[in-house]
Amino acid sequence: MSIPKTLTIAGSDSGGGAGIQADIKTFQELHTFGMSVITALTAQNTLGVHGVFPQSLEAIEAQLDAVLSDIGTDAIKTGMLFSAEIITLVANKLKEYEAKNIVVDPVMIAKGGASLLQEEAVRALIEKLLPIATVITPNLPEAAKLLGRQEMETIGEMKRAAIDLHKMGPKYIVLKGGHLLDGPAVDLLYDGKTTYELKTERIQTKHTHGTGCTFAAAIAAELAKGKTIKEATEVAKSFITAAISESLSIGSGIGPTNHAAFRRLAR
Ligand SMILES: Nc1ncnc2c1ncn2[C@@H]1O[C@H](COP(=O)(O)OP(=O)(O)O)[C@@H](O)[C@H]1O
Ligand SMILES: Cc1ncc(COP(=O)(O)O)c(N)n1
């Protein structure tokens, strides 16, 4: 039996809510075969990031070669990449193996405030990874950082930002509006011509650990199945909305979302 293959290149979250763990759970729920390349270990729980341990370039390269030379992928999601050296290595390998359907979640700062990307690595992200990305999925602070401007606060500002991000090379932009102060949870999809709004009610919960990771992994899973970017982002939005609406009160801080919630909707 053949199955769409998905790969996450990201950091491990020992607490299970974000990073590699969120991605693999999402890949599985969306009926794809999930694989991983771990760029860094984090000692993390719902209270925050207690340690970051980047893996050696040798270890990351060996994982990439092992997966890509034998199994291959139908879609790739990148998350926490931590340093300019890791970004350069990943970008070079994706080019070498002619990887398709590359979803870049430009992870920079964890919800608790810890840095998951070194300041000087932003340039490498812009120069090496954005030009080969099929789609990037920044949140509002990440989009502001990539554009070198102040954080956007309105849908109009988000639309202008999506157009400017598109000029930096990705084929599609999905700009996430989870950080807007109030109103519905609106994300924008921009394909270079048209802007589409993905809109749901804002769910009142503090348990949103890993929402960005889960959303991007869901887009990758749907692209792996051959869905269009519009179809993929619509499924991803339903998936993350279900996961947040049944979010889990696990630990004493910001809890994770429920990756199994979408399964009941899809029945
Ligand atoms: N309280 C919420 N209610 C409904 N959807 C939300 C909520 N918070 C975030 N989302 C959605 O979750 C996804 C991740 O968004 P966001 O929080 O902006 O990303 P990140 O986790 O990268 O900071 C987006 O689709 C966003 O609209
Ligand atoms: C290893 C790792 N990767 C990414 C995030 C971002 O999480 P979020 O999706 O909540 O912004 C995280 N907290 N840890």
UniProtKB/TrEMBL annotation:
Task: Write the record's keywords in alphabetical order, separated by commas.
Answer: Kinase, Thiamine biosynthesis, Transferase
Q: Which EC number applies?
A: 2.7.1.49, 2.7.4.7
- What pathway or pathways are given for this protein in its record? Cofactor biosynthesis; thiamine diphosphate biosynthesis; 4-amino-2-methyl-5-diphosphomethylpyrimidine from 5-amino-1-(5-phospho-D-ribosyl)imidazole: step 2/3; Cofactor biosynthesis; thiamine diphosphate biosynthesis; 4-amino-2-methyl-5-diphosphomethylpyrimidine from 5-amino-1-(5-phospho-D-ribosyl)imidazole: step 3/3
What Gene Ontology molecular-function terms does this entry list? hydroxymethylpyrimidine kinase activity; phosphomethylpyrimidine kinase activity
Checking Pfam families in the record gives: Phos_pyr_kin
Q: Which reaction does it catalyse?
A: 4-amino-5-hydroxymethyl-2-methylpyrimidine + ATP = 4-amino-2-methyl-5-(phosphooxymethyl)pyrimidine + ADP + H(+); 4-amino-2-methyl-5-(phosphooxymethyl)pyrimidine + ATP = 4-amino-2-methyl-5-(diphosphooxymethyl)pyrimidine + ADP
Q: Where is the Pyridoxamine kinase/Phosphomethylpyrimidine kinase domain?
A: 13-258
- Which InterPro entries has this protein been placed in? HMP/HMP-P_kinase_dom (IPR004399), PM/HMP-P_kinase-1 (IPR013749), Ribokinase-like (IPR029056)
Give the highest taxon in the source lineage: Bacteria
What family classification does the UniProt entry report for this protein? Belongs to the ThiD family.
PANTHER family associated with the record: HYDROXYMETHYLPYRIMIDINE_PHOSPHOMETHYLPYRIMIDINE KINASE THI20-RELATED, PHOSPHOMETHYLPYRIMIDINE KINASE
Protein name as annotated? Hydroxymethylpyrimidine/phosphomethylpyrimidine kinase
Q: Which species?
A: Halalkalibacter kiskunsagensis
